[in-house]
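## retry 2 of 3
previous attempt timed out at serialization; input unchanged, resubmitting
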Amino acid sequence: MHDVIASISTALGVGAISIVRVSGEGSIKVVDSIFHGKNKLVDVDSHTINYGHIVDKEEIIDEVLVSIMKGPKTFTTEDIVEINCHGGIATTNKVLELLLLNGARLAEPGEFTKRAFLNGRIDLVEAESVMDIINAKTDNSRKLSINQLDGRVSKIIKEFRQELLELIANIEVNIDYPEYEDIEVMTIDSIKSNMDNIEKKLNKIVKESETGKIIRDGIKTVIIGRPNVGKSSILNKLLDYDKAIVTDIAGTTRDIVEGEINLDGVLLKLVDTAGIRETTDVVEKIGVDRSYKEIEDADLIIMVLNNNEELSSYDKELLNKIKDKNSIVVINKSDLEDKIDIKEINNKNIIKINTIEEDKIDILKDKIKELFNLNSIIKGDYTYLSNARQISLAKECLKILEDVKIEVNRGDPVDLIEIDIKRIWNTLGEITGDNYDNELIDQLFSQFCLGK
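## retry succeeded, writing output
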């Protein structure tokens, strides 16, 4: 892990500048071997910017500014050099090539951040937030990532682990040194009281993590319904431009059509699906099958019905299919004659709109905000777990806690109960990376971009 790694850290293309980053023991020496300036880089002070040229033997490759940052006060805690060269594919690649020819190796995806984690500079929550900041598409997701990067989320988990550690320590002292009179006696009742407090905190973390996931990943919103009920028109109105083709011909949409909007700081990932019906058309049937799959993966389903038609058997089948999911039933074409019987619709979120009047689509937007309580999310403090890995580990802790409660109610020996309390402590440690599996770490950082 102490070898010298190098990678291009900016997007490859035409631009004002590009940055080639180098890290590791001997990185300053490697860069110095291709640098010509007023001073040798190995002799300059840390955290300075140095003007000069990158050269290949006698040939000047580029005019550059080189930042020297000596460990341990760096991102990776190792010596880091950043070469600021003119933006351009040929120039940037040539600088990288010279580094690789002079002792560096090409960094793996996310290897700079991985080194920062393994060297104790950041924890796993903070490491994941680095990519989240890069991928943030809304201001709220940016704020969430920043809160994770500066350690606020990690602090909550670590404080919780400390409480558990103190409980575990008290139990072990009771087991190993029962003769001590000045220690707290850990009875089943006292453990039960502690478990109630732990459960309250865990439930709060898990509940709020769902909010974090919405801010980070957005809301995958799938629009479904029979052909010609106006799904594509609703998509176009939400996007505010004509992305989906709209005609009076049933089956016009045969594949998935996607788009995104920023709904008061939360990303709405819209998916328009093929109209669901029986069909002998091979292509349309594939589209219908895809529509069913999208229903399974959706965070929100918008089911569109036609106001001037009675409920069909397909409508009723779809309504039944989505009854246990987050869903809104949109009765479209409210400008036409009412023929649909709302009493037949088993859903508490029903609205009537049309795509003719400009302001009607706002009714749907307001309903989505209400359903996901977006106004409260926007006013929150953004101190949440946010990705699937973190949330699944928090939920695993809740499952272990259920086992502990059963053991406590059964009156099991305290030393057996302690084993499961330690499991909760260890699992929380996996969130921050205090406990980790090497294979998991390799997989996680492989998803990062090069140069980060």
